[in-house]
């Protein structure tokens, strides 16, 4: 196979110019591995030839996106992280909101796949706030570049595989089981606002639906692993910028916040990759 870096660069540039999706700063090893499958399936020998296939077979773009974007998730993925959010982080956040008489709770799930992650957070907030939920304006922005996944997320129907980590009591309370699917309840759905947002964008740094540009909690889990180091740094800096003072950032368990330039953030749980933005007066 003739798959050199220069040809790869040209292929990614073409995809960006023609489809607007920017994979140019994605992890090169991952890209090459995924592209190899497409080239193999089409018996194509080079990126150059593959680029020509894209011109003549436009439907191949969909196959390409499907192989580059892996929207795999499930409810309460990495249960320890959600336990820590439920037991420590969210109660602390609610207490801080009460003390500062701030009735807005703003969460962003960046790279939300089919909605499993934002709905999981919505369920935890509903559990913790109970009757007090109506006293708060809770908005969970949930964004992704996979428009099919976003459309399915809005419907909120899940198969057995997605709900394996959901405790029985939670399942009965927040889901309806019908026609072989688990349908997320309307009250939880109402808390989540799905929209397209590309984390690689340099111009748009918050979800377009969001009027305000500050968040109490941002989850960006299992997304950064797709990006090269430079892009990871830029995305983390963007996310940090839009975090409220004392706001929380949650990364995927396999993702690390590199040491440099993060004196304004402390690690709250190293295993769960939960960080908190600090301020001069942090106590
Ligand atoms: C493996 S899933 C992670 C889903 C969820 N956060 C979790 O941890 O279970 C990665 C998601 O990141 C999304 N993604 C990839 N590149 C992205 C980008 N540039 N901007 C926003 N989302 C992106 C993919 O479409 C996919 O849905």
Compact overview of the structure:
The chain has 283 residues and is of the alpha/beta class. It is built from ten helices and ten strands. The longest helix has 21 residues, at 79-99.
List the SSEs and their pairings.
Blueprint: H1 5-19, H2 28-41, H3 47-56, H4 60-68, H5 79-99, E1 104-110, H6 116-129, E2 137-144, H7 147-155, E3 157-158, H8 168-174, E4 175-178, E5 181-184, H9 186-189, E6 192-196, E7 215-220, H10 229-241, E8 243-251, E9 265-269, E10 274-277
Parallel strand pairs: 1-2, 1-7, 2-6, 7-8
Antiparallel strand pairs: 3-5, 4-5, 8-10, 9-10
Helix pairs in contact: 1-3, 2-4, 5-6
Strand content: 15-25%
Question: Structural class of the helix and strand makeup?
Answer: alpha/beta
Q: List the ligand species.
A: S-adenosylmethionine
Named CATH architecture of the largest domain: 3-Layer(aba) Sandwich
Number of domains: 2
* Series of secondary-structure elements, N-terminal to C-terminal: HHHHHEHEHEHEEHEEHEEE
With strands numbered from the N-terminus, the spatial order across the biggest sheet is 6-2-1-7-8-10-9
Largest sheet: 7 strands, mixed
- Text of the CATH class of the largest domain: Alpha Beta
Low-confidence stretches: none
């Amino acid at each position: 196979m003739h798959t050199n870096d220069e040809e790869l660069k040209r292929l990614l540039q073409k995809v960006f110019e023609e489809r607007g999706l920017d994979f140019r700063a994605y992890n090169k090893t991952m890209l090459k591995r995924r592209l190899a499958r497409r080239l193999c399936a089409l018996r194509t020998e080079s990126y150059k030839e593959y680029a020509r296939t894209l011109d003549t077979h436009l439907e191949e773009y969909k196959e390409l996106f499907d192989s580059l974007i892996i929207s795999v998730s499930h409810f309460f993925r990495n249960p320890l992280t959600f336990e820590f959010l439920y037991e420590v982080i969210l109660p602390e956040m609610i207490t801080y909101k009460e003390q500062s008489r701030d009735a807005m709770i703003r969460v962003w799930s960046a790279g939300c796949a089919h909605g499993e992650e934002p709905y999981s957070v919505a369920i935890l907030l509903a559990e913790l706030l109970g009757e007090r939920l109506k006293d708060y304006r809770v908005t969970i922005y949930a964004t992704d570049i996979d428009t099919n996944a976003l459309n399915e997320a809005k419907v909120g129907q899940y198969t057995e595989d997605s709900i394996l980590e959901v405790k029985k009591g939670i399942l009965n309370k927040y889901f309806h089981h019908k026609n072989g699917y688990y349908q997320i309840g309307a009250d939880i759905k109402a808390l989540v606002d799905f929209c397209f947002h590309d984390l690689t964008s340099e111009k748009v740094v918050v979800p377009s639906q969001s009027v305000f540009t500050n968040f109490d909690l941002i989850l960006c889990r299992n997304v950064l692993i797709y990006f090269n180091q430079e892009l990871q740094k830029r995305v983390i800096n963007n996310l940090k910028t839009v975090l409220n003072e004392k706001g929380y950032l949650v990364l995927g368990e396999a993702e690390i916040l590199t040491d440099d330039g993060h004196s304004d953030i402390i690690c709250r749980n190293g295993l769960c990759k939960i960080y908190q933005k600090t301020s001069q007066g942090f106590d």
